[in-house]
Design goal:
- By secondary structure, the protein is mostly beta strands.
- It folds into 2 domains: 100 residues, Immunoglobulins (Immunoglobulin-like, Sandwich), CATH 2.60.40.10; 59 residues, Immunoglobulin-like, CATH 2.60.40.
- It has no helices and 18 strands.
- Strands 4-11-10-6-7 form a 5-stranded mixed beta sheet, with no helix packed on it. Strands 3-5-9-8 form a 4-stranded antiparallel beta sheet, with no helix packed on it. A 3-stranded antiparallel beta sheet has the order 13-18-17, with no helix packed on it.
- Strand 1 and strand 2 form a beta hairpin.
- The relative contact order is 0.15.
Length: 202
């Protein structure tokens, strides 16, 4: 016979096994998975948008079990509509809130990203402010050259260019199908060569 001696906590079960000599040839294996609350790996930042333009907020979290991420506005979950669209990625553990076209004061709000799993719930906020195009302050970032539609043969390299100016120098982010481009997860196919210039490698 096999005897079991155990103790249990809310999160982890620990069992001690005593096997008689006749069963010493058997070696059981165990897999222990610890629960973990959500932890943000990408957090949204406050943005100033131009009336008629677009704003995208990115949020992503890890945890065990894998959390679900969603957006709130004025305490209520944002449901995709013509103006506000939520695009999920990473099996729901990430979400992009895209707002277009921007209108003030309608869209000027503090938006909340919520990450939830069975262990806990975490949240982070970002504020959106909107100004009219004719009231842009000196040094406000602007795109001088945007990416152009290209047709390339398979196995060839496509290079997309984007140039922006402002004071201080603006940081350029790339999106594909409304989702943020992360060269580190593209297995070398996508590389950001210089500030604002991206090459797609096959």
């Amino acid at each position: 016979s096999v005897q079991f001696f155990g103790m249990r906590s809310p999160l982890v079960s620990c069992l001690c096994f005593h096997f008689p000599p006749s069963l010493t040839h058997f070696s059981p294996s165990f897999s222990l998975s610890l629960l973990a609350p959500p932890k943000f790996t990408k957090t949204p930042t406050d943005q100033i948008g131009v009336s008629g333009g677009v704003a995208s907020f990115v949020c992503q979290a890890t945890g065990n079990p894998k959390p679900s991420v969603y957006w709130n506005k004025k305490g209520k979950k944002v449901n995709s509509q013509r103006i506000e669209v939520t695009i999920e990625f990473d099996d729901g553990a990430g979400a992009v809130l895209r707002i277009q076209p921007l209108r003030g004061p309608r869209d000027e709000n503090t938006y909340e990203c919520v990450a939830r799993n069975s262990v806990d719930e975490k949240s982070v906020t970002a504020k959106l402010s909107i100004i009219r195009e004719d009231l842009l302050p000196f040094g406000f970032p602007s795109i001088d050259m945007g990416p152009q539609l290209k047709v390339v043969e398979r196995t060839r390299t496509a290079t997309m260019l984007c140039a922006a100016s402002g004071i201080p120098d603006p940081e350029i982010s790339w999106f594909k199908d409304f989702l943020p481009v992360d060269p580190s997860t593209s297995q070398g196919r996508i590389k950001q060569l210089r500030s604002g210039e991206t090459g797609v490698f096959h």
